[in-house]
Write a structure and sequence with these properties.
By secondary structure, the chain is of the alpha/beta class. It contains twelve helices and ten strands. It folds into two domains: about 50 residues, no CATH class; about 300 residues, Aminopeptidase (3-Layer(aba) Sandwich), CATH 3.40.630.10. The strands form two sheets. Strands 3-4-6-5-7-10-8-9 form an eight-stranded mixed beta sheet, sandwiched between helices. A two-stranded antiparallel sheet has the order 1-2.
């Protein structure tokens, strides 16, 4: 799309569900209900925007996922299915009960009273470098919590000594109310479940626009019905304030902070709030992203592009920018997991294991680098 077409298309952001951001020079993915497709087509032709249908029945994908038998967690994690919030908590509770170097802490309740639990793997001991991993801040991105559990399993059962040198703090479910709403009501729900009095009865805040680093600037909306509604103020959402308070309590400050998302197959590095805004050590962050993406590609041939977040689209108030700009983590990434659009947020469960295999390959390099730089 041309810059002019991009600007024109943005007027429809609150009318249609754009799965990827509207950017000049690249494709964007948008979900259009069947009864709106004709008028949508007319609008695009009027704007001179080329388009094609990549999946003509998202509903069938959702139905297929719903019809798949979902076992409850029974003491053994499986990587061929997704798990509900309470099962994710049960999994990390089990691990902590079985290992004296692991602990589960509640960092607070969600708006609807669900426990937000962090798994602490602290075999390395006090004073060793901390790694922070947050997953599932966007409700519909189910592969993100699944990858948090895959990384946990790999840390404990893989051929590595990372837990001897690094302390890990992992939150598998950062938006539990939204996540469970996507399970039980609306598979494509993205936001939290808060209510700020929308006259159209729209609920929720985008928790990845709710952080107080360049809050409410680019890439965020003040429209309560928008998927990117930033909320009435920074940290208006109890979920984001819980994460803020926990991460600020970590000593030392995390050497690595990550946010797991989907989709688009990207390694994003800060800052994302504006073009050409880079942290002082952006070169080492960028280099590691490139090296990690190369390791990932070796496993199943999936290409993940390592780029600056704002090059994807400027978006202010995101957790990764806050982890860098306020918390002060040395290395910060948002990883956009599989795929590139056909399944989008409704990634089939049979892609959990290969996604984990390639993500672990990238993290073996990343975690080793954290050990190395911490000894400098």
């Amino acid at each position: 799309m041309t810059p002019e077409q991009t600007i024109a298309l943005r007027q429809y952001e609150d009318e249609y569900d754009f799965w990827t951001e509207i950017r000049s020079g690249v494709w964007t993915d948008v979900m259009v209900p069947p009864h709106k497709f004709m008028i949508f087509s007319q609008k695009m032709r009027k704007l001179g925007v080329d388009f094609s249908v990549i999946n003509n029945d998202i509903g069938a994908l959702i139905d297929s996922q719903k019809s798949r038998k979902q076992e409850r967690y029974n003491g053994r994690i499986s990587f061929d299915q997704y798990y509900r919030h309470e099962d994710l908590n049960a999994y990390i509770d089990d691990l902590a009960s079985q290992n004296d170097f692991m602990n589960v802490v509640s960092i607070g309740k969600s708006l609807e009273g669900r426990d937000m639990r962090v798994l602490q793997i602290t075999k390395a001991g006090p004073g060793k470098p901390n790694v922070w991993i947050e997953a599932g801040i966007h409700a519909r991105e189910w592969i993100a919590p699944a990858m948090a559990t895959y990384l946990i399993d790999s840390l404990l059962n893989g051929e590595s000594n990372f837990i001897d040198e690094l302390n890990f703090h992992i939150l598998p479910s950062a938006n539990p109310d939204g996540y469970m709403w996507s399970w039980d009501h609306d598979r494509l729900w993205r936001k939290t479940r808060s209510d700020y009095g929308s006259i159209l009865l729209c609920k929720g805040v985008d928790p990845n626009r709710n952080w107080d680093y360049h809050f409410a600037e680019s890439g965020a909306s003040n429209n309560k019905c928008s998927e990117t509604y930033h909320g009435p103020e920074a940290f208006s959402e109890v979920e984001t304030s819980n994460i803020r308070d926990y991460t600020m309590s970590l000593d030392p400050v995390p050497v690595l902070a990550e946010s797991l998302h989907s989709y688009s197959q990207l390694f994003l590095w800060p800052y994302g709030y504006a073009y050409n805004a880079y942290p002082e050590n952006y070169q080492e962050i960028k280099t590691l992203a490139e090296e990690a993406a190369a390791e990932l590609e070796k496993v199943h041939g999936k290409k993940f592009d390592p780029i600056n977040s704002a090059e994807l689209y400027p978006a202010a108030g995101a957790s990764d920018d806050w982890y860098k700009g306020v918390l002060g983590a040395r290395f910060v990434y948002t990883i956009e997991l599989r795929d590139t659009g056909y399944h989008g947020f409704v990634l089939p469960a049979d892609q959990i294991k290969p996604s984990g295999e390639e993500l672990w390959a990238a993290h073996k390099l990343m975690f080793q680098r954290m050990i190395d730089v911490s000894k400098e």
